[in-house]
Amino acid sequence: MPGGRRNAKSSSFKHHSHASDDRHSCDLPTQPQVVPPKHIPMPDIPHNSDFHFEFDALLLSIFAMAGQYINLYSSVFWLPYSHNEDFLNYYLIDYYVLTINLIMVGRRIPVSILKQLCSLCFPSSYQPTCTLCVHILTITCFVPILLFCFYNVTLEHGVLSLVFLIYPYASILYCRFVVYVSALGTNVAKFLELKSSPPEKAPVPKSKGAAANNKNNSVINHVCSMSAETIREEVEMLRSDFNIRLKQVLFNSFLVVYHATFLPCYFSPSTLHYDVHFVTQYGVFTGIGCFTLYISHCFPPKYCDVLHKAALHLGRWQRVEIKNVHVPYSTWTESAMWNQGALVKHSKELFKAEGISNAAEPGHSGHSRFYSLFKNPATAAQLVWFLLVFLLFAEVFVLVQSHTWNDLFSIQLLIMINCKTLYSMTRVYFVVKKIYHEEKVIISKFNN
Question: Which stretches are tagged as biased composition: Basic residues (predicted)?
Fold first, then answer.
């Protein structure tokens, strides 16, 4: 019967069925098959290994700390009647505080060196055991030295000084500042190491259990899929990994600023006079320099490209207000992929698809933020690049305005390491800008 064929045809497209509603009166035509977006392969952009990055980070921390101590304890040794022949007043420096600061900003270097030696001496199957032994050995060596320094600092400056020394690590007991607990949790490995580029190949997460295993193994890779549920699982895994990396960047940047610029000022003698405005400005410069250095390492181009590819498959839904009650729409379903411009109803609201392919859940703020942030990673690279350029211009401006030798010397230390970061970010920015521009042109031609 003709009527029977028509019913069978309409039932075959289950996710386009219309719920009874007075907003529309006509049926939507059959939605065409969703075509996955086209990706341009990311070229191999030179990227520093973890071992080299740790030396750069240590160099920045030591330069920043040395510059701050120069700002605080510089002497007037060139004057004819000066009783100090050294360019610093060394007798005013608290060497126990200096030792604590050096250990905290350089805690990852021994781990990196020992892991490098283990990788050369032992096969890959023994690496997890070697890593655990390296962490235990590092903590065993550092803890007695720190306790001895804490004890002497407490005798010299009082019990209150101990609170400032352990503030970033036990701040939840101090003033509800949960930097360490909320950012890094209780995993000691996250404190002794920095999450960097994972292996490039990974199995496809076909279920929640598989996605959890991939998440635990820190393996990041994108596999093009036409399954909406698989895409959303992949995005959730990538969002979790991105949040961990960002928290590590913020926490480690704060830690360097705290130990390299703030604690030297706090534990300086009360009779010492220094330029508060300049040392505060110096701390801000150090924080921005650390942030850009860490973010350029923790978010390399290949990693951001994986997030970008996942965002193109995820898409985004924009909430719309339609006054015409006869506008046709479809009911959103979890298993369906949607083309650009599709109109669906979800949770009694209407949404319009914006991405090339759309697997996101309408009204999901996390999916919308993920797509907005990674639909064009060149924008984020541009922001970091402009931040570095602004930082260097500000440092050069302060350098020109300075008239004392300690100001000139301390700012030059920061400029040297920031120029190296700017060089690597400039290369990354212009490469990814060209790649994603070409990808956008190809996608536009393909859609037309």
Answer: 1-17
